[in-house]
Amino acid sequence: MKVYVPHDASSLSLGADEVAEAFSRQDGVDVVRNGSRGLYWLEPMVEIETPQGRHAYGPVAAADAAAIIKQSVSHPLFLGPVEEIPALKIQNRLTFARCGVIEALSLDDYKSHGGFAGLEKALKLAPQQIVDAVKASGLRGRGGAAFPAGIKWQTVLTCVADKKYIVCNADEGDSGTFADRMIIEGDPFCLIEGMIIAGLAVGATQGYVYLRSEYPNARGILQQAIDTAYASHYLGSNLCGSGKGFDLEIRVGAGAYICGEETALLESLEGKRGMIRYKPPLPAIKGLFGRPTVVNNVITLTTVPFILANGAEAYSNHGAGKSRGTLTVQLAGNAKRPGLYELDFGIPLRKLLYDIGGGTATGRPIKAVQCGGPLGAYLHESQFDLPLTYEDLATEKAMVGHGGVVVFDDTVNMAEQARYAMEFCAVESCGKCTPCRVGSVRGEEVIKKIIRGENVAENRVLLEDLCETMIDGSLCAMGGMTPFPVLSALQFWPEDFGLAPARKAA
Length: 506
What we know:
The chain is an alpha/beta fold. It has four domains: 2-89, 3-Layer(aba) Sandwich (Glutaredoxin); 107-316, Rossmann fold; 319-409, Roll (Ubiquitin-like (UB roll)); 414-497, NADH-ubiquinone oxidoreductase 51kDa subunit, iron-sulphur binding domain (de novo design (two linked rop proteins)), CATH 1.20.1440.230. It is 40% helix and 16% strand. It is built from 21 helices and 16 strands. The chain has helices at 9-13, 16-24, 65-71, 86-89, 107-112, 117-122, 127-137, 149-158, 179-186, 188-202, 216-231, 262-269, 298-310, 312-316, 349-356, 390-394, 414-428, 434-452, 456-473, 477-481, 483-492, and strands spanning 2-6, 30-34, 46-50, 53-57, 78-81, 165-170, 206-211, 247-252, 293-297, 319-320, 323-324, 326-333, 339-344, 366-371, 378-380, 404-409. The strands form four sheets. A five-stranded mixed beta sheet has the order 2-1-3-4-5, covered by helices on one side. The longest helix has 19 residues, at 434-452. The relative contact order is 0.10.
């Protein structure tokens, strides 16, 4: 009997190792360590292989193992066939199709579920054909900026240089996000395949994964996958006997949020302090060590194998408007059913929060939602009907970002959230530009004065002027977007600042 127990960090924190050990002590049981399906309110979620397919149980504790084996479908934790779990049925899993399904570090399992099919096709194509496929798919960067991936690749391909690089930004630092970690821990060969295809597309022979230091479990899994890929000739000087080469290494960050910005990341990779670079030149033209460099997020690169294997149209057929494909929503905070949901772009935020997420874990009303990390605007209940697309959220100065959606109930104080936004910027600023370095410190001071009731009206005007300066004068999004959560909190929840509520339109 095969029993699947996830080994991702979130499941481990909930006792997955102890659960795996308990099942391994049962007669006739073969324990397989897979990634998480992303249904975190059910973790550790255990799956048992049966002639009728895999059956799920959760959340499972070590003490439940013997009874689950004995009682089978009559056990109280039985969830039914995995594919019939409502939270999985509603999804369109393209990038995460294998995550939670396969044994994460089994190359044979990866290949039997379509792994390396995209690479096999890419090896038969000219570089321009690979780039054209990514362009036609509509794939945009999933790290936050949402720049079209194919355009970036085209720029690097066009550049003439003695060396080019592929850099994967795995410095996943936004609040409420875990998609990068989840797919590295559950489907690491997919990232490797995506980076190799990117290298073939632009003529790069060296890749680096810049991984956040807080992900030691992901690092260990990815390193084992890289070692296996080298041993099986999917990495090295002769990829699959093609005569083409690609090498891949992991580099670990040092806990700086600013290194999620691509130019600060490149500075860090070069052994320097993580500070942003002036643009131009763009990294695609003059990036790592002054060479043309593709810098893409984990989810961007892990989506590429699907596009090459199934065709650009298979991906672009999903989504809405200019937001093509799927969005890996990471629902977190005060949510009843937190987790990762891969959904077509265009789903209304309200449907995600209530129909899928089940509202708040506390059962209280949702007061605010922050999309796209700590630099995203807070959304008010009146905005919950917004479709989750880049364009629709931008109309409200909100953003998709990396796909994080953090939920707050009506006990949250939005003035404190605004103060925290400025504090976060002050702590994480690289210090290169004055609006960000100084503006965030002054911003927190002014918000504290407003909270204390000191010259509230005058300090509000001062805060709004300061925010305008940061937006217009900062060199990167760190300072340029920090005002968005502050201004949205002021606009929709002035009473939390001790201000009179905004007048409603007649």
